[in-house]
């Protein structure tokens, strides 16, 4: 059913890794920080993950992200230090730091960002499982018109993650290639505007394709099913682009989408799942003998996108494709799991775009390369 073409533009530059000594050093720096010690006090914790943190455009190692985890859920209100990353990377270091204060419940992990060059902790935040209970002012923005948006002209659609790819071209990957499902072919990542304007390259990607809606899917039908009572995926983000060809004799075309998300501008501590969907001009791909009519999509979380409001862009990041894929699957199952014609199959189709945990600037890469397949009933 699925085969990769011979056209592969992999980035051959090796990705940054941590030596055993660097691994031990970042854990030691994190554990020695008094703020981290206070948050871990009373918990029998383990070091769950240690992943490299690098610059976006040179792949130079900055430090690492350390995740501590424990069993018993914690609740607290505290100051959370964070950084706002300079996507131009013209400053040194390429970020500014501040703190936000908010409360959380259900926290069983702590994510700590360590700068190896300065031997210091620059960011501390609760894990994805935590729920924010006492957010700071302007927790999020919903559907504001340009005139009513306190961020000023253009603020309603210009978010930090969008700016990163639009201004400098995108992010890099070693796994960019064309995937074909029968006669329909598509690149296994979406792209920023630089790829559309100047050509596809493996350092101009945004997020890996991680979702396939099939059977009787169109982009409109998927979005309508998600912007409804009990789902609330009614907001949009900034535009990204997919390159695809629907049929062996068809031309390659670009498709643009702003996607669907639960919050337009999630504030400090808030993580909003965001999915973009792609097809050609008739709103669907196929017909495929196995999949019927289908569309493909990317997934990620957006955290604290209230830029450029002073003090509220601190701690911004976007990413966790795999976790966002699972969250969206869970939300759709909760809404439509008992409905005839819907089907759900997690991690089913290998799109050859697995990404090990790694931070590129404020871009958190994480994907197992296996797309989730969701069947849509016939209208």
Oligomer: single chain
Structural class: alpha+beta
Q: Note the gap between the termini.
A: 25 Å
Mean pLDDT: 87
- How many DSSP E strands? 23
Sketch the major β-sheet: 16 strands, mixed
Which series of helices and strands comes N to C?
Answer: EHHEEEEEEHEEEHEHEEEEEEEEHEEEE
Q: What descriptive keywords fit this protein?
A:
16% helix; 6 helices; 16-stranded mixed sheet; 379 residues
Describe the structure.
With 379 residues, the chain is of the alpha+beta class. The chain has two domains: 2-12 and 142-376, no CATH class; 20-137. Helix content is 16%, strand content 44%. The protein has six helices and 23 strands. The strands form three sheets. The chain has a 16-stranded mixed beta sheet that branches. It has a five-stranded antiparallel beta sheet with strand order 1-8-9-12-13, with no helix packed on it. It starts with a strand and ends with a strand.
Structure described in brief:
With 379 residues, this protein is of the alpha+beta class.
Detail the topology: elements first, then pairings.
Layout: E1 2-8, H1 20-32, H2 34-40, E2 46-54, E3 61-85, E4 95-115, E5 120-126, E6 131-134, E7 140-141, H3 160-168, E8 177-181, E9 184-187, E10 189-191, H4 193-198, E11 205-216, H5 219-226, E12 240-246, E13 253-257, E14 260-261, E15 265-266, E16 271-278, E17 285-288, E18 292-303, E19 317-319, H6 321-336, E20 343-350, E21 355-360, E22 363-367, E23 370-376
Parallel strand pairs: 2-21, 11-23, 19-22
Antiparallel strand pairs: 1-8, 2-3, 3-4, 4-5, 4-6, 7-15, 8-9, 9-12, 10-11, 11-18, 12-13, 14-16, 16-18, 17-18, 18-19, 20-23, 21-22
């Amino acid at each position: 059913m699925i085969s990769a073409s011979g056209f592969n533009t992999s980035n051959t530059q090796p990705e940054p890794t941590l030596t055993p000594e660097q691994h031990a050093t970042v854990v030691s720096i994190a554990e020695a920080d008094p703020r981290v010690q206070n948050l871990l006090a009373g918990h029998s914790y383990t070091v769950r993950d240690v992943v490299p943190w690098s610059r976006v455009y040179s792949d130079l190692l900055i430090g690492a992200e350390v995740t501590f985890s424990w069993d018993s859920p914690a609740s607290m209100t505290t100051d959370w230090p964070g950084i706002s990353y300079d996507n131009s990377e013209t400053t040194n270091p390429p970020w500014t730091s501040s703190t936000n204060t908010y409360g959380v419940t259900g926290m069983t992990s702590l994510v700590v960002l360590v700068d190896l060059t300065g031997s210091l902790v620059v960011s501390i935040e609760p894990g994805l499982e935590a729920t924010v209970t006492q957010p700071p002012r302007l927790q999020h923005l919903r559907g504001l018109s340009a005139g009513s948006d306190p961020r000023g002209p253009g603020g309603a659609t210009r978010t930090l993650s969008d700016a990163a790819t639009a201004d400098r071209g995108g992010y890099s990957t070693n796994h960019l290639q064309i995937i074909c499902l029968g006669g329909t072919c598509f690149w296994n990542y979406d792209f920023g505007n630089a790829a559309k304007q100047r050509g596809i390259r493996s350092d101009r990607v945004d997020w890996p394709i991680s979702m396939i809606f099939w059977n009787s899917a169109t982009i409109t039908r998927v979005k309508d099913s998600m912007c409804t009572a009990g789902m609330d995926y009614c907001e949009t983000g900034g535009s990204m682009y997919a390159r695809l060809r629907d049929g062996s004799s068809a031309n390659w075309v670009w498709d643009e989408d702003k996607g669907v998300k639960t919050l337009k501008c999630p504030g400090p501590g808030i993580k909003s799942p965001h999915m973009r969907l792609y097809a050609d001009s008739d709103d669907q791909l196929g017909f495929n003998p196995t999949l019927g009519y289908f569309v493909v999509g990317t997934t990620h979380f957006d955290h604290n996108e209230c830029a450029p409001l002073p003090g509220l862009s601190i701690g911004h990041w976007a990413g966790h494709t795999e976790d966002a894929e699972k969250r969206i699957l869970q939300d759709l199952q909760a809404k439509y799991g008992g409905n005839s014609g819907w089907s759900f199959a997690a991690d089913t189709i290998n799109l050859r775009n697995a990404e090990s945990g790694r931070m590129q600037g404020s871009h958190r890469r994480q994907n197992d390369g296996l797309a989730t397949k969701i069947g849509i009933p016939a209208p």
